[in-house]
Amino acid sequence: MRVLSTAALAGPALLLGLLAGCQGNSSTTTTASSNAATAPSDTTITSPPDGITTADIGNHIKVLASDEFQGRKPFTAGEEKATTYLADEFKKLGLKPGPDGSYFQNVPLVEITGTPSSTMQVTGKGQPLTFNYKTDFMAFTEREVPSVALKNSELVFAGYGVVAPEYGWNDYAGLDVKGKTVVVLVNDPGNAGNDTTMFKGKAMTYYGRWMYKYEEAARQGAAGLLIVHDTKPAAYPWSVVQSSYSGAKLRPQTTDKGASKCAIEGWITLDATKKLFQAANLNYDQLYAAANKKGFKAQPMGLTLSVSVENKLRRRNSKNVVAVLPGAARANEYIIYSAHWDHLGIGPAINGDSIYNGAVDNASGCAALLSIAKAFTQLPQPPARSIVFLAVTGEEQGLLGSGYYAAHPLFPLNKTVADINMDALSSFGPMRDLTVVGLGQSDLDDYAREAAKEQDRYIQPDAQSEKGFYYRSDHFNFAKVGVPSLYASGAADSRAKGKEYITQQHNEFEEKHYHQPSDEYNPNWDLRGMEQDARLLFRVGQRLANETTFPNWKPGSEFRAIRGKSMGQKPKA
């Protein structure tokens, strides 16, 4: 689960820090409201004899979120316990290992514990500025070296730091940033709300995500990149940046040991940014307005920056867990179910408890994964296509396990029909809604809608697409390589208690339990909603597994061309 906003959440999928990227939200929301008005209030949930039960789901959560598993952090004894448990459960179900004969896929990671210099120095037009670590800026590096430093690196303001040909947008046009440090705004140009036709309007695109901005700056040859933190477009406060970018962080091992990355990546507060612009004799508000219009030209600031980071490095393999139910007719075509097994491990004690158990986040998703696997093994006839069950590592560290799988797939991507992802399922009982994060992206919406109808549920988009939840869970790495991906769960409308109750419950979870030791298994949970969601996603996969066609991305999706290329389709002239 990715970082959350502290603002009120409209649904449980938001509870995670997942994703967004909806199209046609207004019409979809109207339909959802209409359906909600007539949705039955009955809380009785029919449980077909398919092997998916609240008892099984609860038992798996109870084990995976127990203190014995030490919070399931990669590189710890908790990882060994969690991955062994999952592999053993897959074996008990009679599922086959991956193509290399193993239930594990090694994921090479490096743990970088970075210690930035206590201050960041800026010199240039007049009096030098000193910014303080954590208070004013955060700095880190993905380079696998003992130390990195920027010394008198020229500063350039490059708007949003976006190069998006399909939107006719290039913040780096005519700009040479080699060896320089770029300052960019968070989110993307459509988010400001000045023009709803710009990008996807308020719904964040991938160009608005911090990971894209670091990637693009590196492609441009920049030595450093600082993202301006503004709470509203970032969707989380500065305290989240402080906690997320300090201490030991896991990164993918790369052949060049991170040399292709910017030497320094980081964030700077809005207040510090305004002081920076004032020192450069630039008007922040005017340049912000200019950056939200086409034709923006990057602005050299006439200042230089100096900062450094000292690193401690530790390299090891973590593990994805993989199991397969071979298809009966088209075994070389695959549907993937994914969930991340990792959480935060042992950390600072809160109320005397230092084990961050991660029961909702994401023992719940793993429990659903195992339950769906059981359901497939109990079918009278095996599905025509193969079903892959993938429990990935390092989601909490930046979607690392799914990213590694997408770059090193065990099964061909052009034969992978879809990914169905589960992350932080609701423990508040049966739901009326099915919230699809990224509704409008792919044909999988139609499969989800049909499965929801079977359960007398209505389908709706996430209500906060401007916060970019679509880009914050493991399905996104499958989307990036073109595989249609579904991330959906009951998130907003309790069948027994309505929407306000769910909003209250999710606010309470975020305030008191999200990424805290108190995210523990609770025997008083009503797990019928998890059972309901697991059965719905099972039905989606069952239908996909017995078809001969491949779902695609909707026209206008940024992933459609990638899928077309993967499937050998020639791009249209």
Describe this protein's structure.
- The structure is a single chain.
- The protein is built from 16 helices and 20 strands.
- It is α/β, with parallel strands linked by helices.
- It has 2 domains: 54-96 and 326-490 and 528-567, Zn peptidases (Aminopeptidase, 3-Layer(aba) Sandwich), CATH 3.40.630; 112-313, Glucose Oxidase, domain 1 (3-Layer(bba) Sandwich), CATH 3.50.30.30.
- The strands form 3 sheets. The chain has a 16-stranded mixed beta sheet that branches. Strands 6-7 form a two-stranded antiparallel sheet. A two-stranded antiparallel sheet has the order 14-15.
- A hairpin with a 2-residue loop joins strand 14 and strand 15 (353-356).
- Helix 3 packs across helix 10 (359-377) and helix 12 packs across helix 15 (528-545).
- It is globular.
- It starts with 11 loop residues before the first helix and ends in a 7-residue tail after the last helix.
The domain count comes to 2
- Would you state the CATH class of the largest domain? Alpha Beta
- Average pLDDT reading: 90
**What global shape is seen?**
globular
CATH architecture name of the largest domain: 3-Layer(aba) Sandwich
Provide the CATH topology of the largest domain. Answer: Aminopeptidase
Q: Radius of gyration in whole Å, from Cα?
A: 23 Å
Low-confidence stretches: 1-41
Number of beta-strand segments: 20
Approximately what portion of the residues adopt beta-strand conformation? Answer: 15-25%
State the helicity in percent bands. 25-40%
Query: End-to-end span in angstroms?
Result: 40 Å
Structural class assignment: alpha/beta
